[in-house]
Amino acid sequence: MMTTRVLAMSASAGVSRARWAWLAAGAVALLVWPLFVNEPFFLHIATLALLYTIGAASLHLVLRIGHLSLGHAAFLGLGGYTSALLTTALSWPFAAAFIASGLVPAVVALIVGPIVLRLRGVYFVLITFTFGEVVRLVFTEWQSLTGGADGIFRIPPPHALLASKRAYYYFALAMAVACVGVVARILASQTGRFIDAIREGERLAQSSGVPILRFKVMVFAIACGLVGLQGSLLAHFITFVAPGAYAFNESLNLLVMNVIGGMGSLTGPLVGAVFLTALPEFLRGWVELQRFLYGVVLIIVMLFVPGGLVELGRRTIALVREPEGRDA
Amino acid sequence: MTALLDVSRLAKRFGAVQAVERLDFQVEPGEILGIIGPNGAGKTTAINLISGVIRPDSGRITFAGQDVTGMRPDLLVRRGVVRTFQATTIYQERTVRENVRRGAFTTAYRGFWSTFLGTAGARAAARRAGEAIDELLSWLGLSEVADAEARSLPYGFQKVLGLGIALAARPRLAMLDEPAAGLSHDEANHVAEVVRRINREDVSVIVVDHNMRFISTLCHRIVVLHHGAELATGTPQDVTRDPRVIEAYLGTQH
Ligand SMILES: Nc1ncnc2c1ncn2[C@@H]1O[C@H](COP(=O)(O)OP(=O)(O)O)[C@@H](O)[C@H]1O
Ligand SMILES: [Mg+2]
Question: How far apart are alpha carbons A227 and B97 in whole angstroms?
Fold first, then answer.
């Protein structure tokens, strides 16, 4: 065990350089491919995937404080409806509506957070599930404001220049980098250190002076603000909002992205978001099969690779690099 | 000189059990106070009450001249009151250094925005905390294992690590719940040395234990608890000679 640790340490400098190389290669690929493949179908899926990395990363934040939310889509919806209403009914400029679409869910989270974040385990799961359903009911029933079950149509693009799929792809890319960057920065900062401390040992963290509830509420509000921004970007991309899009399914979707990708690090939800956005689109023809595959993949991951796709990838790389070093 | 900690008529009941009853004692600045008593005497409950983890039914706790009765634990830590736990309480899957860094919240953490933006102040605070922690690790005897995962350590080291997490908060009063329980003679001596050392650096200490020998060589004064109530208070010599103590506690132990 000691030797593996030493090996890991001597390799770490090289690993971080390799990591930067991978990041740079990835960035170039993300920027360049649409110049060669100007295919609306692929651009559409890629844009969706980018937008979902925001929501998945934001739910990752909530998971990191030790809470499993099944109501995250409610905040996605709050962002979407806010942006849709402000730009259509009130003709606000997109930039202002976009900011509001982050603020509204964040403020709602600041209000409900101090109540729900006191609950632990399954109680938190149940209350967030209920909250999600209540918000969906409000979207459906408050017809004069939300357009009821039909929702709101003809949401304008954020800017005339963003009317094309390719332009929106680049816009989504920039926004996803910014939002996921915020999450990454929080987790890498001192705040991230104490977020992990809270999850791993709440009582111990508290006895070191960490204000547990305040930390949780703050992180929860930031997460809900971020997923609200995704809601706005998504609404202006698909040009409509409707209650069905923010139902329990969608909350589960965001959660499954985290589970399948892996909950150990921020890479997990990013991989999960891309995987789970692309997979159903490519399986459009087999709707029945799609649900089935979805379930099978989820069960396999939970049973055999609790670290998700990220761990699967890591194991594969390790296996390729040193096939004999399997005793660790 | 006024007491650093003044506990007055503290009481706590759990259902039918009067865990702490009319407890009175003071901790003077610079003092090492022992609290001793058999299992179930109410020692841990007393620490829980003072550290704000549970609220007393009645009574008053004053720290540095201010009423802190029922104050939230994290706010008490800010004022300089920290505690350790009777059961080993560490971040199992983290390195020893990371464990202790997490203990330094009050000194290292400068708020969300300054850490998010990485301001000069936040970076300086983190760097200073890092240096202080290296020093702390070295005199706790944990430098050698600083990069090892906490769960891989032997029990004695884990116990010292728990102490290190508490001390990283730079307390004025440290309350240690059975810091030597289950330790070998040498390990217990090491813990006693650590306590004496922080005490020389002006930290007042409450040491809870049920081992009279450990407590009486380490502490300036001892409070003997019995069924939640104070049985006797005094110097180790006085207390060990007190007939009530001998009958109620030592008599049954030896
Ligand atoms: N949270 C609790 N709920 C119910 N009873 C408790 C609780 N904490 C302690 N007690 C009871 O209070 C008494 C004192 O316990 P404790 O303070 O842990 O004693 P000590 O630390 O001296 O061994 C015991 O009878 C114990 O069972
Ligand atoms: Mg105890």
Answer: 34
